[in-house]
Design brief:
mainly beta; five-stranded mixed sheet; 0% helix
Amino acid sequence: MTESDEPTEPSPTPKPTTKPKTVRSKLRVGPAVRKMKAGKKATWTLRLTAAKGGPRRTVKVVFDPAKGKSVRVGNVRLSTTRAAGVQTGRFSYRPKKKGRFVVTYVGRKLSPTLRDTNATGVARVLIR
C-alpha cells in the first residue's frame, strides 16, 4: 500500500463559537448627594439597567468615610420592574461622618449568548 492508498481521517469540523452579546449595565444611586445630620437614618434608592432576563441581580454596598476604614453595609437584592432590563432596590444607613456610598454590580453571564457588564454607582453624604 502506498501513501496515497491509505484511508484518510476526515478533518474535525470547527465548532462555531458565538461570542455572547454584551449589554452595558448602568447603575444609579439616588440621591447622588445628601446633606444630613450625623447619626440620622436615611434611605437611598438603586436603579440598575442591564440585560433583560435572567435572575434578580444583587449589588454590594460599602460606606467609605472621608477618614477611617470602609464599612460594608451589605448586599441588596434588586427587584424586577415592568420595564425590560430594569431592576430597583433600596437600602438604609445611619452615617456618623461624611463620606460616600460605593455600590457595585458585578455583572454576570446570563446565557451562552447574553451577558451584562459590571457597573458602579456612588452617592455622597455631607454631614452638617
